[in-house]
């Protein structure tokens, strides 16, 4: 998938663990029930889409653009998210465990639950009660 051009593409019930989407261009890409654990998606764009049951555990999504994206029953556990754009995203349906919250500004404009906020602050070593 490296350097591929993906337009109006649907990935459903797919196992793409470790896939390399480096330098891929995407427009209107839909993911549902997809395993993308440890995948390479640096700079990848999935804007204004709904991701359903997508596992991005340990994936490299640095500098990705996921603005206005809804995450339903997804996992971002231990994903590399530096420089990721979340504005307008709904992350309440995502497992955010293990994310290294180096820059809280990454989550500016995104919606998360109270439980997720406590989990992220806990990753910083704060006791949330």
UniProtKB/TrEMBL annotation:
InterPro entries, per database record: 5peptide_repeat, Pentapeptide-BTB/POZ_domain
Superkingdom per UniProt: Bacteria
Cited Gene3D superfamilies: E3 ubiquitin-protein ligase SopA (2.160.20.80)
Database matches in PANTHER family: BTB_POZ DOMAIN-CONTAINING PROTEIN KCTD9 (PTHR14136)
Name under which the protein is recorded: Pentapeptide repeat-containing protein
